[in-house]
Here is the input.
Amino acid sequence: MPNSTVLAVVISSPTQQQGVSAGSSVQLTGYITFSTGISPGTGHPLKGKQSSPSLPPQVPSATYLIDGEPAGNIVITSVGESVPGLPEVDQATFSQSIPLCGSNGSHTITVKATDGSGAAVTASVTVLISNSFQRISFDAKYWNFWSTPAFISANESAFTATALGWPDRYTSQIISDFGFSIFPLSAGKSCDGKKLDCILDPGSNGSAHTPTPFGEGVVLGADFILSSQDAGLFYWYLLTMHETVNQFTGAIASGWIWANGSPVLGGGIRSPFPNICDIVVSGEIGNSTLSQEQYNRMISSGPIGKVNPANLLIYIRPDAALFLYIQQQYGWAPYRKLFALVKGIPNFSWGMYPDVAGPGGNPERTAVTCALLAKYCGLASNDLSLLNLFNQVANDLSQTTITQAQYEAAQAQIPVLEAQSTA
Here is the structure.
């Protein structure tokens, strides 16, 4: 069957100059007409074919661009005859939600269809973004910064090189410590598809979360960057880093016991691993004030010291003390090996393992995590020392005990996971 030739691209919606808010989406619909070169009367092998993954190579590939920059792939939803009785002319339709970001004003969405010869045909539509976040003028390696025009105008002195340079500093260290990078981002993953977005939102004062309306990144209250609200900017330095740790680990797997609130480890948003990263990473890059203050909030008053595994319950947050002990005793290597394992399994989710808390519960997810960390700490398979530490915390927070039988079943999962991983 010969290659196709793109004849035209038509965008049905959105309409020209449609008004939208930044962070919202527009429904991009339309169709691509193309010639297959099939002679009349030979049948129509493409008719009724649906969904991009199963389409034959004669269907043109298509991408979309925003303001001239690649932003994602077009998903073909169906293929049929463009003109009944003319099988040599076909029509591929598309309909998908396109997230928008950017400053106030006009922005151009372009659909680009490419045929087998490499020739391309495009069509464009203009949308008008209003009530938008605006880029803060600062050149960072990994981040773009945003806020409302009013907040930017009123608080320009707050956007110092020290404050806005902080996310680049800890991001570089996280990449080194964790042993992987989420860069380069895929098109459509953030506003520009290259850097993470940090949105200072006056409407979210007092809170922080990930992702952003644009995709990957951090949203936090705009007040956190104001020294009038926090003289040392403690929460600016803390929360940007904390949520970036969640962004990194969430990019390679979902359902982490230490970030998503495992009921075995107390439920809720306790986030013991991101909390200890705040202590360790900030210290590694020279912010001893942040490191010390977070240690005093999570672990103990007084100078930063080694966690004593004999009794984790003496610490303010036993769950945080557990994960800090592993890092202090064994370095980043156990976590790095764990990240490499799950990163090598496509679409991995810890949710495949249940975590039922309470006496007689089934703490399978926590047991598997413990078993993997024990192996990556270099402990022998019959060494129950790390299991005992996990049980200290689980007993205290949810009256749950990982039995030896449950632990041995979790250990049996390790070769299964390692066989699935490309690590």
Q: What stands out?
A: Confidence is low (pLDDT under 50) at residues 39-53. The chain has ten helices and 14 strands.
